[in-house]
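Hi team,

As requested, here is the filled-out complex form for the arginine run. I kept the field names the same as last time so the parser does not choke. Let me know if anything looks off before we queue the next batch.

— J.
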Amino acid sequence: MERYKKAFTDEISRALELDTHEVAKLVKTPEAGRGDFALPCFPFAKQLKRNPAQIAEEIASGFADHPMFEKVVAEGPYINATIRSAHVISNLVPQIRNADEHFATSDKGYGQTVVIDFSSPNIAKPLGFHHLRSTMIGNALANIHRAMGYTVRRINFLGDWGKTFGLLAEAYDRVGDEAKLNREGIAYLLSLYVEANKLKVSDPGFDEAARQMFLKQEQGDAHAMELWQLFRTISLKEFKRIYRRLEVEFDFYEGESHYRDGMDEVIADIHKTAGTREDQGALVVDMPYADDEPPMMLKKSDGATLYATRDVAAAKDRYERFQFAKSLYVVGTEQKRHFEQLKRALSAMGCEWEKQMVHVNFGRVHGMSTRKGTVVFLEDVLNEARDRAYEKMSADSADRNIDIKAVSEEVGIGGIVFGDLKNLRASDYNFDWDEILNTKGFTGICVQYAHARCCSILRKGGGAPEIGTADLSLLTAAEETTLVKEIGRIPQAVEVSANELEPSRLARAVYEAARAWNRYQQAGNNDKSLRILVEDEKVKTARLALVDATRIALERGLTLLGVPAPDAM
Ligand code: ARG
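And here is what came back:
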């Protein structure tokens, strides 16, 4: 569709002697029934010294007999353009099929690196449901940038350093149970943490001992480090089990501990550049703060370093290694101040590149509880989603040949992931189990069904026809044109999602494509001549080519979002 938009704007900018980019920026998708592109003309009125309706008229008449547009009309100050159906079908269908798994890719990001810090949980605690957002928004953004040709570096900045691990190690030394730790893994670490907090209250010396333990870790003491290493290994093993289910991978597990030896150096650097000062015994960055703003702390009064210090070190390290064009931090809105301060401090240090760092913030999820209760672990949510999908599919599915067990994992997890990504990332949303598996809504399962349906029709129809064998001029139904246009919008949605760091834009486009597919199916149910597997071989072949293009587009869209696309459901 990009190509049509370009033709539209080129034509207009030539006629009006305006800059193409200026025109392109104003092009919109009109409401249904008004064509494919709309352009308001009032922004040009002043410059051209004519009224907008007049300009619209002029432009419209210039499009007479255009090979790509069947209708370009002025409606008051607007121009509405409709692409020729035959043109878009005969171009896009083979183009999508030729591209296949490269559909919706480009080289716009070629030669540029994007670093994405996402998921980044704290160790010694099971992944919570809230970790899903960072993990899946980050994963989708990574996939999307990759599709645009960027070099992508996926980093999991584990929270694996800090006083908590001194606290845990001290508690383990006192009351730890090795057998239990080996048996229960991270769940045991969580209970040990509860235990440690009790010790803090009951034993006046405990807190101080825990602090000493962390200082020992910072100094590399063998025993203190051994315990820390144990907690980390156990945690990572469990995190990876869940990442595997989500099909999420990282290039680097470089947590806070990765920077533990560079702390003095980074503090000296900040001291020399931005400047540091003492604040109530702590060392803070010396930069201007708002009245009620707590300063950015680098070192506590006992000498222990902090999260912010390690983030400064990590940011510099990432820039040195990757010279990133963008460095994204997919972290909840709660950390807004942290990232603002981080960027300000780097700027004060003379690191101009901090402008390329973006806090990709996201809102909270309300109303989540599982059958097990309200303390929500991600793994329980994924299990429940799988089980609910299983129940639904055992009841609904007519096709007994499919492996319901395997598919319900894909449908359940896909439902949760899509249900998350479809929301504007910065907004909060309400989680609702009934919505997740609603086949008729703006849901993952709706898109997955559409995709599986394409696959099953192709199987029934004897496979996808060879490219070039179909006479696409036989695709004349309005539903066919709409479907082609909707799948054709996916590449642009990928680009917009990357530029706006907003996977919801792609989720919406993929869903609209699935909806157009459903309407096509519906039309075939109402009117037998519109069925795909009709008698007429030529018509059937043309329609199967369209089904194949749809399958590719949906599969690509889902995959970029990180949602599985089963081929039978
Ligand atoms: N571990 C942190 C948390 O769970 C998130 C880290 C995000 N990344 C970063 N570079 N600060 O809150």
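Two things worth flagging: Residues 222-246 form the longest helix (25 residues). Residues 117, 120-122, 157, 159, 311, 314, 329, 331 surround arginine (CB under 6 Å).

Thanks,
J.
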